[in-house]
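Backbone geometry:

***
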Amino acid sequence: MSDLKEKWQGWLALSTAIMAVLAALTTLYMGKFSSRAIMAQGQESDQWAFYQAKSIKGHTFEVNLKTLQLQYLTQKGLPPKAEAEYQKTMKKYGDEIKRYEGEKNEIKAKAEGIAKIKLKAQEMGGDYAYALIFLQIALMLSSISSLTKRHYLWYIALLCNLGWLFFFLDAWLLFY
């Protein structure tokens, strides 16, 4: 009977040590992807601020172009040099408006790409957090099993590892 008890305690100790290592690894991944999500949030915010700045600059050119167009329409008999200057300035403003629209589209695409990365990192970090919870429960049950010598608690702890496996693999598969 003593030999069987020692075997069980050996398996209990080994499985608990393995769960502790897996918990450390899971914590590492959880932190990695949570940090990645936070950094992506900052980058996304920067891109949207840049987009807003380009929008304001583009809008300024639109207002100035409309003002010039209205002034041009109300002017009668402008000297050829003044008319050429109006046309040149209106073309320049139109070109600037197009340039800002193009830049805004590029910035928007980049911000949306960063948002996708952020959401994926958040989801992965959440999955690793759930996986860690299952391991923590399993470790707690293993510890109580060791103290109380209740084998069924250890078996429940081993079953909790299935929850860890599910969420860890779910996060891992999201990565690929």
